[in-house]
Amino acid sequence: MKSIKIFAPATVANLSCGFDVLGCCLDNVGDEMVISITADPGVKITKIEGANLPMETHKNVAGVAVEAFLKAYGENIGVAIEIYKKIKAGSGIGSSAASSSGAVWAVNHLLGNPFTTHELVKFAMEGEKLASGNAHADNVAPALLGGFTLVRSYDPLDIIKLHSPEDLVMTVIHPQIEVKTSDSRSVIKHKVTLKKAIHQWGNLGGFVAGLFTEDYDLIGRSLDDVIIEPLRSILIPEFNNVKNAAIAKGALGSGISGSGPSIFALSKGMKVANDVATAIQDIYEKTGIDFDIHISKINSKGIKIIEETEYRK
Amino acid sequence: MKSIKIFAPATVANLSCGFDVLGCCLDNVGDEMVISITADPGVKITKIEGANLPMETHKNVAGVAVEAFLKAYGENIGVAIEIYKKIKAGSGIGSSAASSSGAVWAVNHLLGNPFTTHELVKFAMEGEKLASGNAHADNVAPALLGGFTLVRSYDPLDIIKLHSPEDLVMTVIHPQIEVKTSDSRSVIKHKVTLKKAIHQWGNLGGFVAGLFTEDYDLIGRSLDDVIIEPLRSILIPEFNNVKNAAIAKGALGSGISGSGPSIFALSKGMKVANDVATAIQDIYEKTGIDFDIHISKINSKGIKIIEETEYRK
Predict the structure, then answer these.
(1) CA dihedral (B235, B237, B241, B247) positive or negative
(2) What's residue B137's pLDDT?
(3) Which B residues, 178 through 197, put their C-beta within 8 Å of a C-beta on chain A?
(4) What average pLDDT does range B233-242 have in this prediction?
(5) What is the dihedral of CA B122, B125, B127, B130, to 10 degrees?
(6) What's the pLDDT at A312?
(7) Does residue B67 carry a catalytic annotation?
């Protein structure tokens, strides 16, 4: 039995000016998974630790993602999936995307990479569809490809890996409150003014240019979302205080991670990212709301192999 | 008397997915200007050839741009401006921007560059304000800086020079019809759907990434404007036929230059750009509408010195 143990990273999507298109991959926040090729055909979830998630394959995001993979692969082989969940569900840092991406990446690896990593995105998106009703790619793309990714288009699916400057560090605070998906969706308006849309695409262009030229200052100036953040941030306690404190401590910019409630701050260098963490921790400690804080470099690789066993019985 | 003769390039602005923010600079289409520092204080337009434009300084885009420059410079020196106009007014390839950009660049050069080229943009924008009532930067920025430029923000003004891959060639057809500014403005809607806005900024991100990675295919896939082009193209005869013919001949993409009526097609390599020119010429010859066709590499320098005379009397 071929088996692999992997690290499946958390991700920050809907990154400020890049709503619905831009995401990035974290380095030290993520799940562990053990994926094995077994003798019995069919996909089985054999173990889940750290979260109360469905063991039934068709109800589990990793299960449906691997089933989509195998359908395209054309052979009904046996796959066993163990999930050691560390990313909390509903945190806004791509918990479901880590599971579905990790599972398809591992199976692809164990089978000798019949698909490119880019091609795996559409299989992992089936997991997102199960999780949220919407086959979005902005978490699975960075989880699989690493670094910063751009979903240029869904039809046809076109994912672009962007350059990731070495010194960028994310500080993410996850307030342990529930923001209902229905609420975070309902506050978004169907129409926007052309003026704001132009402002937004100017900033997205600036952000992408900043990544490629490693112009940290430009990256910071471009982290400005005039469309979604003003609407969704009202659902997140202390959002403005956290954002202002992060920027006061030297962060390049700050915004909502995914559809919240997590808030990210992007900084140049670990020292600033640590200072930012201390400042936002101070704010949240006064609220009485439980929270986690993560400080992570950008993971430019995506999924990582922890251990590989050729013929484990 | 110090004097300089310059080439002031034409530009393609509102470049497809980059409406209001993205422009590029042409290499062999442009005006010539002779700018001199004179003994008599004050800005004078001393000669205009090739167009019927105002000789009064405050009514001439080059005149007001230089006056804005001198106001910031703080000395009321004498400047004489000769304009040899080759870019037709109302063509949609930055005729006024060439004059205002060329004039301020030349005066800055003659005075030993007291301002950076980036700083000149705001002076040249005064010329655009006179020409169109709107101090836009998307033509003057590429005319001054060369290559592809992004207007990330107007307040504060933030112009980003992007990378310009060597093999890009523009084919531009200028149908000699008048499209009234009021018409090209009135067809634009004040509000857009969020879905289309996301599509647009995904493409702008892809275009910028394509420039930096020299991925010509990605540049082509990203040249897709779902917001402005469908509305404004109805004002331009044969727009869809020209666009389709250009792409059929191998162009990476095609769209409206500025607010029209010119149509651009961007190609990889001179051979394709020539084939595109032939194909769209065939279409326009059947219409009975007079037209010019330009084929030009991207000018990554901007304004160019033709001749410099230290002490011409």
Answers:
(1) negative
(2) 95
(3) 188-194, 197
(4) 96
(5) -120
(6) 46
(7) no
**Nearest Cα to Cα of residue B149 among B8, B304, B301, B295:** B301
Determine whether the interchain pair A152/B227 forms a contact, defined as Cβ–Cβ distance below 8 Å.
Answer: no
Percent of chain A scoring above 70 in pLDDT:
99
What are φ and ψ of residue A64, in 5° steps?
-70, -30
Task: Tell me the chain A residues in contact with residue B162 when contact means C-beta distances shorter than 8 Å.
Answer: 209
278-307 in chain B: CB under 8 A from chain A: none
pLDDT for res B76:
87
pLDDT (tens digit per residue) in B168-192: 999 999 999 988 777 888 899 999 9
A-B interface: how many C-beta pairs under 8 angstroms?
Answer: 126
CA-nearest of A148, A271, A251 to A263 is: A251
CB B1 within 8 A of CB B56: no
Percentage, residues of chain B above pLDDT 90: 92
Mean pLDDT on B149-161? 96
Query: B278 falls in which pLDDT band (50, 70, 90)?
Result: very high
Alpha carbon A270 to its chain's center: 21
Peptide bond into B142 cis (omega under 30): no
Find, in chain B, the residue whose alpha carbon is nearest to that of A204.
Answer: B205
A218 contacts on B by Cβ (under 8 Å):
152, 160
Query: Amino acid identity of A253?
Result: G
Q: Which amino acid is at A206?
A: G
Which residues of chain A neighbour B193 with C-beta distances below 8 Å?
A: 190-192
Cβ contacts of A119 within 8 Å, gap of 6 or more = none
Mean pLDDT, residues B102-106: 98
Question: Which residue positions in chain A have pLDDT lower than 70?
Answer: 311-313
Indicate which of B159, B198, B218 best probes the interface with A, i.e. most A CBs within 10 Å of its own CB.
B198
The DSSP result for B235-293, as a single string, is GSTTHHHHHHHHHHTT-SEEEE-TTSS-EEEEEESHHHHHHHHHHHHHHHHTTT--EEE
Region B158-162 average pLDDT: 98
What are the residues whose beta carbons fall under 8 Å from the beta carbon of A20, sequence distance 6 or more?
A14, A136, A138, A151, B198, B202
* The pLDDT value given to residue B311: 58
Instruction: Kindly name the residue from A67, A128, A229, A238 that is annotated as catalytic.
Output: A128
H-type helices in chain A, by residue range? 61-73, 95-110, 117-132, 140-145, 181-186, 194-213, 216-222, 229-232, 239-248, 270-285
Annotated catalytic residue A181: yes
pLDDT classification of B313: cutoffs 50, 70, 90: very low
Nearest to A192 among B19, B192, B212 (CB): B192
**Domains in chain A with CATH codes:** 3-162+299-309 (3.30.230.10), 168-297 (3.30.70.890)
Return residues 194-253 of B near A (CB < 8 Å).
194, 197-209, 212-213, 218, 221-222, 227
Reported as type and span, the H/E element at residue B148 is: strand B148-154
Q: Tokens 């943009």 label which residue? A: B121
pLDDT in tens, A165-182: 999 999 999 999 988 777
| Number of residues that make up chain A | 313
CA distance A244 to A236: 14
Q: Give the pLDDT mean for B84-96.
A: 93
Phi, psi of A169 (to 5 degrees): -135, 135
Find the catalytic residue in B32, B67, B126, B128. B128
